Amino acid sequence: MDEFNVLYTVNSSYIDIMLASFYSLIINSGYRKIKIHIVADDFTQADYEKIENKLKGFPEVEFYFYNLADFPIEKFHLPDYKGGQIGNARYFFASILGEKLDKIDNLFYLDNDTLVVYNLLGLRYFSTNPLNAVSELSVRKYNQELGLIDYYNQGVLYFNVREWERLGLEDKIIHFQEQHKLSSGKDIFNCALQENITRLPLNYNMAPLCFLFGSIGTFLFFNNPRITGNFSLIREAEKRPIILHSYGLKGIKPWSDNNVNPFNKEFMEYIKMVNPHFRRQELSNSQELYDKIPFLLELELMARSIVANSLDTKQLVKKRN
């Protein structure tokens, strides 16, 4: 198959998690030659060496590092995420990768907390679109207030590099934020680029919520008229997941010491490949309660989807952030 170019953005605290995603990509993507582009933030020399040592055993993989500190991303006044700009770097891949981009037609972006569990060869059907993403579960009223039809998750993105540049989508994000000054990076992404996004099938970006409830609970949750979601599409996607993405669930991640995240087994298998001595993170007090009584987590998620419909726009923005 043709070479496959993949983009990650990461800070030093997520290296083991990102490497687990690497391994799943290398093993399952279906591509023989992979080029991985890593935008790094706050890396030490030891961090670079760790990644190099873990990837040198894969002769079919090339990897390139880009230091976020070399790119003046702060001047665009995008909201920080957990005190940093590394998450926003995905929007500026054209500037950050520079001349490396000259030989790249398509670029696939993955969040660190993703696992590729089936081949990605079907992406070729989306290769001519400037930007492809999966529509995520969202509150209908919130979408309407923002003027959106769909709300897309930004954790799995597939770019046609030439179309992205031709349409000036990097500048479109910058200009939109200059005018509107939104406080959520996800809102900026969705509002600025809504008309340029083509929907990917759900199985390219499956959240834990898709697997959390039993059949009846899933039906009730995803047939709630207050939220977007389609029970039949979710059930169909469950038959052949392609990418698992561990977002949501009150911050209970598969690499934490828990029993409720449905992706625990899959993530820990790959994390242990990377670091056999990996120690699972401790839960906060509130997360421990959900872990001991999983029904409470399901009940709260159900309640939030109902309550959200009655909130006004400012409350919704505050709650999302």
Could you characterize the architecture of this molecule?
This protein has 321 residues and is of the alpha/beta class. The chain has one domain (4-320): Spore Coat Polysaccharide Biosynthesis Protein SpsA, Chain A, CATH 3.90.550. It has 14 helices and nine strands. It has helices at residues 15-28, 45-55, 93-97, 140-146, 161-166, 169-180, 185-193, 209-212, 215-222, 231-238, 264-274, 285-292, 294-307, 313-320; strands at 4-11, 34-41, 61-67, 106-110, 114-116, 131-135, 152-160, 197-199, 243-245. The strands form two sheets. Strands 3-2-1-4-7-6-8 form a seven-stranded mixed beta sheet, with helices on both faces. A two-stranded antiparallel sheet has the order 5-9. Helix 1 packs across helix 11 (264-274). The protein starts with a strand and ends with a helix.
